[in-house]
Predict the structure.
Amino acid sequence: AAAAAQNVIALGEYSLNPDYYANFVQATSNGPESVWEIQRVENYTDNGGGWGPDSFDGTGTPVAVACGGWGQNAPSSDLFQQFEAGDRRRQYTATLETDVLQGVQMCGTPQAPGMAKHIIPGKKEGDFPRSDVIPLNWVLFRYSDVLLIKAEALAAAAAAAPAPIEAIDLLYTVRSRAGLTSPTKADFQGYTAEGLLRYIRS
């Protein structure tokens, strides 16, 4: 896994997007961090009888998927609890009613958070002949995933040895973009490889 991840890194085609949320915005889709996105076309007519891939949106509004509808695609409370204090990714992943994204008032509580990654600002449900078919891509695999895969593989291969410096650097790069600076690099250097592996997987 480490070698496969390094092959992707060595291509030099990808980088972390400084703005995490830009990975999920229509105007900046297929950006530098995007490795695999399912391309979508607005108002495409075949959604598999309502149970095909377009059902991902699920709640009948392209404005803020978190608000209303069946809610079958909303983030779980368990996912919300995984975000550390100060993690910039939280409001873009599992929303609260106090969050405002792109001018859209979001919905959600820690027990039932909303979803932020399918928003088209300034649009209403009636703007689309079919509200379940909107032009936002599905982002399935990003460069940050590649970095974390390599970090995890390096830590797993090191067994009981000290945490590999390269694995620490990769993990810290992803965490820094999220605004997370604790533990510090120096803290991570005090971990065993097994301890770092547990941290990455937690």
